[in-house]
Each structure stands twice: as structure tokens, then as C-alpha cells.
């Protein structure tokens, strides 16, 4: 494969993936090679390469009759992913305090929250920044396997998060609450800091996502 073909395949992959993640192409939407080649203005070769990568990642589903759709997000998916997040991030957040690193992590998390605030008018970019903030929390484990679990679910986390926002999770209020969480962290106040994380992200976030 030439460099040009590789570049086109990468471009196709990035564009199709972005349209899926930002819900321009929502879960369950039918896709065809013809439609993708027409919308992206590319030949079938790079499109097929991109489709294969996205099938491996689980973002595109092909049935027995080889028809393609954007992979669905079920209520079961949402419950399971939020259960996983609460289990891992809950323990990570506790470890940040018991290890005495709450001041250090308050600044690391604040850097991510600043990016969330800067992206407040673009909910797709805000959700990407929010996901990075959660990755910062679990980095306390220094565990590559846990990082991989999160990385493997990043696409679903972003799509589910966008449903939360679209269904009433207020970006501005969430940003302000995270700023309060950071202040509680600097004061070594685990209970109040974790209460914000749990209420906003594991409570309201999940409830709003389920309204999809």
C-alpha cells in the first residue's frame, strides 16, 4: 500500500469515527460503502480499510446479510459501563487521598477541567476533555491493564457522555461542581470531593444517558 493510500485510509477512518462519536451518525444508523464514498469523496479502497478498523473497534456492526449499521448503545451497556466506572474510579479517588497525593492530583485534574471549561460551547470536545479528566483519576493506579480497559471503552464513554449532555446534564453546572471538587481535594476533604464526582458523573450522568 502506498503512503497516499495509507493517508486516505487514515483520513476516512478519522472522519467516519468522528461522525459516529459525535452522534452525527447515531447508533443504529444504516451505513453503506456507496454512501460513505459519496459523503467522503473517496474511492472504496480507503473506505473499506476504515470500515474494517471500526468493525474491530466495535463501532460498526455487520450482520449476517453484510448490511452495516452504527453499533447500538443499549441500556445494559450504559449500566455496565457506569458500574465499571464507579468501581474503578471510586477506588482510584480513594487512593488519591489515602496515598497523600490529593494536592498533586487536584492540580492535575484542574488542568483537565480547564480544558473542559474552554470547550463548554462544543459538547463533543467537552466530552473528550471530560474523558481525559477521568483518565487522570485512574492514573493513580499506575496500572497499564486498567488503562487499557478504559481505552477500550473510550468510544462508548464519549457517546454515552454526549447522550447525558443532550438529555439535560448541564455542562456549565458540571464544570462549576468540578471546580468545587478540586477545592475540596486541596483541603484534603475526601467525603465532599467524592460526593461531587459520584453525584454528577455516576448519578446524573447515568440517569441522563438512559433517557436516550
From TrEMBL:
Domain HTH gntR-type: 6-73
Source species, domain of life: Bacteria
PROSITE patterns reported in the protein's UniProt record: HTH_GNTR (PS50949)
SMART domains the record matches: HTH_GNTR (SM00345)
InterPro entries (alphabetical): GntR_C (IPR011711), TF_FadR/GntR_C (IPR008920), Tscrpt_reg_HTH_GntR (IPR000524), WH-like_DNA-bd_sf (IPR036388), WH_DNA-bd_sf (IPR036390)
Family matches, as Pfam families: FCD, GntR
Record keywords: DNA-binding, Transcription, Transcription regulation
CDD domains: WHTH_GntR
PANTHER family: GLUCONATE OPERON TRANSCRIPTIONAL REPRESSOR (PTHR43537:SF24), TRANSCRIPTIONAL REGULATOR, GNTR FAMILY (PTHR43537)
Name of this chain's protein: GntR family transcriptional regulator
Species, as recorded: Dorea acetigenes
Amino acid at each position: 500500500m502506498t503512503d497516499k493510500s495509507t493517508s486516505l485510509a487514515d483520513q476516512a477512518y478519522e472522519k467516519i469515527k468522528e461522525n459516529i462519536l459525535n452522534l452525527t451518525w447515531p447508533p443504529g444508523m444504516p451505513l453503506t460503502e456507496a454512501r460513505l464514498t459519496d459523503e467522503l469523496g473517496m474511492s472504496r479502497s480507503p473506505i473499506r480499510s476504515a470500515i474494517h478498523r471500526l468493525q474491530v473497534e466495535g463501532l460498526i456492526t455487520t450482520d449476517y446479510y453484510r448490511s452495516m449499521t452504527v453499533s447500538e448503545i443499549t441500556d445494559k451497556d450504559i449500566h455496565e459501563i457506569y458500574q465499571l466506572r464507579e468501581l474503578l474510579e471510586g477506588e482510584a479517588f480513594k487512593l488519591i487521598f489515602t496515598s497523600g497525593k490529593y494536592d498533586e492530583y487536584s492540580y492535575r485534574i484542574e488542568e483537565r477541567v480547564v480544558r473542559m471549561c474552554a470547550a463548554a460551547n462544543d459538547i463533543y470536545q467537552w466530552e473528550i476533555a471530560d474523558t481525559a479528566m477521568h483518565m487522570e483519576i485512574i492514573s493513580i493506579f499506575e496500572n497499564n491493564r486498567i488503562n487499557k480497559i478504559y481505552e477500550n471503552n473510550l468510544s462508548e464513554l464519549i457517546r454515552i457522555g454526549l447522550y447525558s449532555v443532550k438529555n439535560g446534564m448541564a455542562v456549565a453546572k458540571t464544570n462549576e461542581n468540578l471546580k468545587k471538587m478540586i477545592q475540596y481535594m486541596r483541603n484534603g476533604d475526601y467525603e465532599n470531593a467524592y460526593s461531587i464526582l459520584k453525584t454528577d458523573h455516576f448519578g446524573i450522568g447515568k440517569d441522563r444517558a438512559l433517557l436516550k
